[in-house]
Amino acid sequence: VQQCLFSMIEEGRDRTAFHLRIGTILAQKWQDAGEDEKDRALRGNTLVLAADHLNLGCSLIEKKDKLLELARLNLHAGKWTLRQSAFASSAAYLRQGKKILEEQAPDMWSTHYDLTLELCGTLGYLE
């Protein structure tokens, strides 16, 4: 059903906007979710889906603070997938977060030190 509906959306800006909207909803659900042990797997899956959709829709994000939030979301997704031993996925999220940060803050080591350190440090551990 999902694939059928998705195929009905024209490629290009409409599809990108769709990803952005879905990712925004999922990111909000992830942020609102509880920390209960039983919710941990569901919360992690929501996090990864949110990051996937927002990464596909990020070309439409214009506000710098929203892009920096996406870089941080990719960090969380990278750490979660690392804990699941999904090393390739983890590296992909961390690289995407680092790329976004580099584009938004070329002087990222001075302006966003903690986020930069976590992204680069975790990525370095994987590589």
Describe the structure.
The protein contains seven helices and no strands. By secondary structure, the chain is mainly alpha-helical. It has one domain. It starts with a helix and ends with a helix.
Blueprint (SSEs and pairs):
Layout: H1 2-7, H2 13-32, H3 40-57, H4 64-83, H5 87-104, H6 108-111, H7 113-126
Helix pairs in contact: 2-3, 3-4, 4-5, 4-7, 5-7
How many separate structural domains?
1
| Average predicted confidence as pLDDT | 90
Number of helices: 7
**β-strand number:** 0
Gross geometry: globular
The major pleated sheet works out as: none
Structural class: mainly alpha
Q: Gap between N and C termini, in Å?
A: 38 Å
Assembly type: single chain
The SSE string, one letter per element, is HHHHHHH
InterPro entries: Hybrid_Histidine_Kinase (IPR053159)
Protein name: KIF-binding protein
Features:
127 residues; 7 helices
Short description:
With 127 residues, this protein is mainly alpha-helical. Helix content is 79%, strand content 0%. The chain contains seven helices and no strands.
